[in-house]
Design a protein that fits this description.
five-stranded antiparallel beta sheet, binds flavin-adenine dinucleotide, 2 domains, alpha+beta, 32% strand, 8 strands, 176 residues
């Protein structure tokens, strides 16, 4: 059995997304994550104020999401792009075009949209376990991992924070 150590601080919470790997590497952490790239658009439907067909709830279909921001602006996304065999991932224009065309297919008003911004980010996807990675770092009594949220880090942020808070207030409940 691995000996349990204390890092030289009261508590260390590692919540650095993909950067959590770099931070914990010197501690011989036993968890792995890979980046999964996502491209999304910020768009504005032209003349939206005078468009009676503009219907503005969140609309999701076939894992594509159109999210209203108000004033005729929307988020549209996102691609899901995995790493190649070398562990690298770069934004794929074809996948981006597919998302855009699929979004127009179920939300035709987007045909009249101007793309204000196109961006991409990398989601931290745990390997060999489900998301998120919310647990003590193996071998340490005072390092907690709050990372690897993959596609749901915004959604799960409050629940993650509450779990970490509860563990700090009652360390005997931490699942070592
Ligand atoms: C296109 C796309 C769409 C998404 N859509 C959704 C969605 O609809 N709903 C949802 O819930 N989630 C969504 N996500 C996922 C969500 O963005 C992530 O799960 C979330 O950002 C993870 O939050 P985090 O704080 O753990 O990590 P991050 O947001 O990656 O933040 C980590 C922070 O740590 C910092 N850091 C890194 N390394 C170090 C270091 N060595 N030292 C100090 N600081 C460091 C970074 O600079 C960064 O500020 C989406 C992601 C993408 C890319």
């Amino acid at each position: 059995m691995q000996q349990e150590k204390y890092f030289d601080c009261d508590w260390l919470i590692v919540a650095a997304g993909l950067g959590s790997l770099e931070i914990t590497k010197p501690l011989f952490a036993e968890f792995e994550m890979k980046p999964v790239l996502g491209q999304a658009f910020h768009v504005k439907i032209l003349d939206s104020a005078h468009n009676p067909n503009l219907f503005t709830p969140v609309v999701s279909y076939d894992d594509i999401h159109v999210v209203p921001l108000g004033h005729g602006e929307f988020w549209v996304g996102a691609t899901v792009e995995f790493t190649d065999e070398m562990g690298a991932v770069t934004a794929d224009q074809t996948l981006m075009d597919e998302v855009w065309q699929q979004a127009i297919a179920f939300y035709p008003e987007l045909k009249n949209a101007e793309i204000l911004r196109h961006w991409s980010g990398k989601r931290p996807r745990p390997e060999g376990q489900g998301a998120p990675v919310l647990k003590p770092l193996q071998g340490y009594k005072n390092i907690l991992l709050a990372t690897g949220h993959y596609r749901n880090g915004v959604l799960l942020a409050p629940a993650t924070a509450l779990t970490i808070r509860d563990w700090l207030l009652a360390p005997e409940t931490i699942p070592f």
